[in-house]
Amino acid sequence: MGLDRAGCGVIPPLRAAALVVLRGPLGQKSQRASRRRGMERNMGYIVHNQRQYVDGDGLDSRLLYVVTPAETVAGPAPRGGWPLVVYIHGGGWEQGNFRRGEEMDVMARPIFPAMLSAGYALAFVNYRLTGEAQWPAQILDCKAAIRYLRAHAGEWDVNPDRIAVYGSSSGGHLCQFLGVTDGDARYEDPSMGCAGASSRVSAVISSYGISDLTAWRKMNDHDFMVGFLGAGYTREQAWDASPIAHVDGSAAPMLLAHAQNDGLVNWDMTPVMERAVRCAIGDGKVVSWYPAYGGHGSDEVFQSPLAITLYIGFLARFV
């Protein structure tokens, strides 16, 4: 039913993350190419084959693939396997999926080679977009992907007990939702596979994510929520699809980042989400960052050395 946030106090200031030394080819470009082989060693990482995380449906919107660090960059996998960061893309729930047989350029965003160099495996996940299915299809798919990754973790030398999620914008919304609905049967579909595995995540990184759909002030004429929830959606539907409505003591540790001049997703909802999570799980498990500038996803801010240090420092504490 959500958390009563009255009287929870003021939001503490940002706690600086410890400096992380990043090794490897940070920020260098690799060739964009279709990778259909089982794995490809390139620039210090290994790209593994795409997989269907829902057996038998053949949908491109239910593909994922894993990228693991090469020992030359991060050393051997730690005991238990690589910790895993699952990237859930944004795009207003309308776009952003990769194509079958092609992967994104891992080096295109500095955060990804930095995570690999710091010893984290990565997973990139598609999910059904709103042109294919409305809510809650998106979260059902993301939870099915987490279950699949956990159930098959040993095949990539990944630690099934150390799985975090990272996303921005609508991807941040889905990451937050994963972090606050562990064990909620309304948002699980065991028939999609790996029913015996958990969709729990150890930590959430959300950059300019949408935490409260009822507080989202539309910044232009395009209403993403019509495609997401359907024409004629109600405030109750929007609230139930909001991560903040589900915050309780089982929430995962969370890093929330949002620029104060965001022109697409109003930033003022994020401190409210921060306060709710702090009240539920304690100050020590929540980190926030609200740069004055950065708009909606400026790489100069959200892929900056400061952001990378903050994000990887958070992962080091909780994953």
Automatic annotation (TrEMBL):
InterPro entries: AB_hydrolase_fold, BD-FAE-like_dom, GDXG_lipolytic_enzyme
Gene3D superfamilies found in the cross-reference section: alpha/beta hydrolase
Any one GO molecular function term: hydrolase activity
Keyword Transcription: no
Keywords linked to the UniProt accession: Hydrolase
UniProt xrefs under Pfam families: BD-FAE (PF20434)
Superkingdom in the source lineage: Bacteria
Domain BD-FAE-like: 81-271
Name of the protein this chain belongs to: Alpha/beta hydrolase fold domain-containing protein
Species of origin: Bifidobacterium avesanii
